[in-house]
Amino acid sequence: MTTATAGGAAEPGAPPPPITQRSTKKPRSVTGTRRWVAVCFLLPALVLLAALVVYPIVYSVVRSLFDTGGSTFVGLDNYGELFSDPDTFTALKNNLVWVIVAPTVSTALGLIYAVLTERVRWGTAFKMIVFMPMAISMLAAGIIFTLVYQQDPERGVANAVWVGVHDTFTESSAYPGARPRPNSGMEKTAGGSFTTEETVRAGESTGLPLVGIPPAKVPADARDAAAARAEEGKVTGTVWLDFSPGGGGKAGEIDSGEKALAGVTVEAVKDGRTVATTTSGEDGTYSLPAAADGAQLRLPGANFAQPYNGINWLGPNLVTPAIIGSYIWMWAGFAMVLIAAGLASVPRELMEAARVDGATEGQVFRRITVPLLAPVLAVVTVTLMINVLKVFDLVYILAPGATQNDANVLALQLYLLSFGTDTEQGVGSAIAVILLLLVVPVMIFNIRRMRRERRR
């Protein structure tokens, strides 16, 4: 290859002179698209973003500086009222509980589900079942758990299970709601028990008539009551339902057709101390030894205690944990799916090497699986924290009116103040700004974390 020199001769091996030519085309973006074309495509999204996000934020900030009517500038007075209001303070405290408990438990359960279902054949079916609650709305979930948390064990699933477990280990009372017949010589004493006013003597028979038991509650196999025979050296008597079907009969006496009350505990008490105890038989009769001579007869309150009715899940003490439980039921599946996707990308060689070196499954989980899943766990936790700060519908649907203040959260307080009976839209806008300020740090943390992940 030869090139021409200044004298006209070509010099072999020299590169040709560069050709300089100024381009008249407009610069393009990295993707090769003209900027105005990109702006045209982005313009509708930017307009919607400004209308649905930017404008409401700016308006809420401005509105929080005015009074309820929006005509008088009050500065930061709404914020001062917000932090001095006990209902708002309760909402803020409950939000703190939500942010700490709900994302942590949901992520932990999602991690456990993802790890445990990885090795079973029916893992896919289990994941589908756990994820199914995500397909329903918060409103529907609230209605479902309203039924789950019903106080009546015959209607509420939670109390049906709880009462079943309780009754397995604790004996229920024989005849709940029963009481002695009026003017029968027995008075109510401590602990719901009933004690005879007079002392009893050996060789005598003392009847203990009871009422207040609906016929439907009397056992179907109950026998007719029998009059106890007096026995020398013993205190005897009968415990029976002093009620004749169809009416009639004489009060305080055993009439035909009146039923025996079996299994009733009868105690002999002297000077506040129990000296003898027995239980009525199938025919209602009981017998106490000679130690009962000169004692008073007492029917302990355990004979008549009302059946255990479970826990008031939506009461003032448990309403917030109960609602958080329903939230976890919905979102644990979401956490499981994301963590399972991250678990699929974890190098299996590291786990196998650890097992070969003698590590137990617990050590592999704590020292290899969890550290490698840390980015995914952070994504799930932060996402749930943002979601929890906005929780509203579950609390609004589940919490009864009597305990709604105990379960209050900031989003619900915002709604009640802005659109409730006594509207305070200035304070409501201040709560909206506070919610925004609480969400922003979490979002900034999430964005920085994602940028660090891209650099890796």
TrEMBL record:
Residues 1-12 have a biased composition (Low complexity). Residues 1-28 are annotated as: Disordered. Its main location: membrane. SUPFAM superfamilies: Cna protein B-type domain, MalF N-terminal region-like, MetI-like. The chain crosses the membrane at residues 36-58, 96-116, 128-149, 327-347, 368-389, 426-447. InterPro entries: Ig-like_fold, MetI-like, MetI-like_sf, UgpAE/MalFG_permease. Residues 92-446 form the ABC transmembrane type-1 domain. Keywords: Cell membrane, Membrane, Transmembrane, Transmembrane helix, Transport. It is a multi-pass membrane protein. It is found in: Cell membrane. Belongs to the binding-protein-dependent transport system permease family. PANTHER family: BLL4140 PROTEIN, DIACETYLCHITOBIOSE UPTAKE SYSTEM PERMEASE PROTEIN DASB. This is ABC transporter permease subunit. It comes from Streptomyces zingiberis.
